[in-house]
Amino acid sequence: MRIDLHAHSTASDGTDTPAELVRNAAAAGLDVVALTDHDTVRGYAEALAAVPQGLTLVTGMELSCRIDGIGMHLLAYLFDPEEPELARERELVRDDRTPRAHAMIGKLRELGVDVTWEQVSRIAGNGSVGRPHIATALVELGVVPTVSDAFTPDWIADGGRAHAEKHELDPFDAIRLVKAAGGVTVFAHPAAVKRGRCVPESAIAELASAGLDGIEVDHMDHDGEARGRLRALAGELGLLVTGSSDYHGSRKTCRLGEYTTDPEIYGEITRRATGAFPVPGAGGATGA
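^ thats the sequence. predicted structure below, dont judge the formating
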């Protein structure tokens, strides 16, 4: 089985609609794909209606969190999307994205970049506006050559010249909320140093003690040394190890299935989840 547990659609900052995402996942030879848009479940209905034969959809979300002043992302899988406390918190995070984007645009204009809200809004479309949309605007304006090059201290990385804060969850609260909704939690790209400061291993140990289920090890932002270190840390802490593409369509260079999760790990994730279940397309795989 080929399993990719981290992908984005136009419901947040990807360029594929949810329906296109599941069709492209099947075309890429995946057996399982997770829809993990930022702080929203708005893509679920469209994706669920379009799951093709041979593909299983895992519903999820990537929650924006902050610990000791450091931003981190928490992947949540197979939770009950109607659980009211988690729903309320994700809406608070999502709704704060618009004023934060306005603040970042203002900072960029102070730096001499002729970016506008109209441009960023056009790029975001119906999605939940985020930094990748602003990064795409910088590419359009010729300020940086790629979206990834915008995520530096010079521009919109955490602590960067044009960075602005938004409402983010304490990860300990996020783990509690996802668990209460029957879900499973995985720390996304924990060693992505190009994005800014990383959460120290001591804090990851505390998160593991609080119920964190796993860490995303195989990811395009982790080099070989980082993967080895994270895999060893996961072993020490009893955490599940996942691998994922973090696919964003044409917005980033990563491809669906570029990194994958072991079927046994996927099986353990589905066994731990009680809030929702993987959804096979007509005649599709049912999971491990």
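The CA atoms of residues 225 and 231 lie 10 Å apart.
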